[in-house]
Sequence to fold (184 residues):
Amino acid sequence: MPKLWNETIETHRTAVRDAILGTTMALAAEHGLLSVTMSRIAKEVGIGRATLYKYFPDVEAILLAQHDRQLAVQLEHLHAVQSAGGDPRRQLEQVLQIHALMIHEHHDSVIASVMHRSGGRGHQDAFLQDMLQRAGEVGEIRTDMSPQELATFCLHSLSAAAEAPSQAAVKRLVQLTLDGLRAH
Fold:
């Protein structure tokens, strides 16, 4: 097939996939997750159910795809912080703040319920472990615990951001978490 034809088909597929993801999120936000069905999604997108099933096997797969998309954006942002270089403790603070603010802003979203069931947290955990390892190597944080244990501490500690009453409270939570990481 000619290159133009392939690009046109791929553009169409991407547009349909984006419409499916957006519509599913809108339906879940408006009517509740339990009311979202494949038939309703197909009708709202303007495609047949058979076409929808060519893209996703069920509603949960659509939600997981949206979660993966959001996670990729967050990881891209986190990698930008890491790539900028500078003081490892300051980088760690920025990364924890990004993570905590995301939890604070999206804690009651449909995606939040899916995040708890998916393996997406593994990417965040590995990224955070790497940052903690580097910060420990230069004496910025404690080294009496493994980076894996410290990452688990951070992620659990920052999960409290879901209940924080304001962004200022989230920032205080990040500082408290950093205090727990401080080298003795």
The two ends are 64 Å apart (CA to CA). The chain has two domains: 1-57, 63-184. The chain has nine helices and no strands.
